[in-house]
Structures are given as C-alpha cells and as structure tokens.
Amino acid sequence: MNTKKLFNIFVVVGFCLVIFGVPVLTKLEPHTDYSIFENRTLAEPPVFSFESLFKYEYLPAWDKYYSDHMCLRTEILKVKNMIDVNLIRRPVVNDVVIQKNLLLPFQKAWLEHMMKRQK
C-alpha cells in the first residue's frame, strides 16, 4: 500500500472516531448542573414542544446544551486559558486582569472611563 492511500485511510478513520466518538463520550460522561471553572449554571436539556420547534428555539437549545456538556470541556477551557496567559500573554483573560502575583476583575466601564480621561 502506498503512503498516500495509507494517509487517506488514517484521515478517514480519525474523522469517524471524532465524529462518532465525541457524542458517545459526551453521553457517557456524568453531567453536572454547575461549572465551577466558569462560575455559571450549565444549560439544561430542552423540553420538546411543537411551539418551540416552529419558533426555532428547540434545536439551538440542544446546541447550547451539547456545547455546555461536551466531553473534556473543562480541560479544553483550561488549556485555552493557559495558552492565553502563557503563550499569547494576554493581559485580560475571561474578564480577569492577570499580573505577576495578583488577579483582578476586569471592569470595562473603568477602562472606558480611563480612555475618555486620556483624550
């Protein structure tokens, strides 16, 4: 078997594992109602009604539910924040100002006030 065909098989198998594996792992993972990492309540599974289906509220509610309960979601968010802080060196991550030995809540109103003051 040549290298190109082997690579194509590898890509197809990897794609299928992700497409079918993530929903299965998401379903098997225990669900919580609250995210300590994000300090917020996670979405609940939507209840079906014809009214919500025709108002186009039912399927977006499932999208929000699955995005809140995706497997390894907290770990993915932690990695994203580590990249923001250490690699990209963003001064504000998730509305928190990062300093050497200090974390401060970021207040957009204060920033706007300071920007107006400098003009």
Descriptors for this entry?
three-stranded antiparallel sheet, 119 residues, mainly alpha, two-stranded antiparallel ribbon, 5 strands, 12% strand
Q: Major sheet, described briefly?
A: 3 strands, antiparallel
Number of domains: 2
Major β-sheet strand ordering = 3-4-5
| pLDDT averaged over residues | 82
Give the SSE order as H and E letters: HEEHHHEEEH
Beta-strand percent range: 5-15%
Determine the structural class based on helices, strands and strand pairing.
mainly alpha
How many strands?
5
Portion in helices? 55-70%
| Count of alpha and pi helical runs | 5
Shape: extended
Description:
The protein has 119 residues and is mainly α. It has 2 domains: 3-90, no CATH class; 91-119, no CATH class. Helices cover 58% and strands 12% of the residues. The longest helix has 26 residues, at 3-28. The model has no long low-confidence stretch (mean pLDDT 82).
Layout of helices and strands:
Blueprint: H1 3-28, E1 34-35, E2 40-41, H2 50-54, H3 58-69, H4 73-87, E3 92-93, E4 96-99, E5 102-105, H5 108-118
Antiparallel strand pairs: 1-2, 3-4, 4-5
Offer a quick outline of the entry.
The chain has helices at residues 3-28, 50-54, 58-69, 73-87, 108-118, and strands at residues 34-35, 40-41, 92-93, 96-99, 102-105. The protein has 119 residues and is mainly alpha-helical. The strands form 2 sheets. A 3-stranded antiparallel sheet has the order 3-4-5, covered by helices on one side. A two-stranded antiparallel ribbon has the order 1-2.
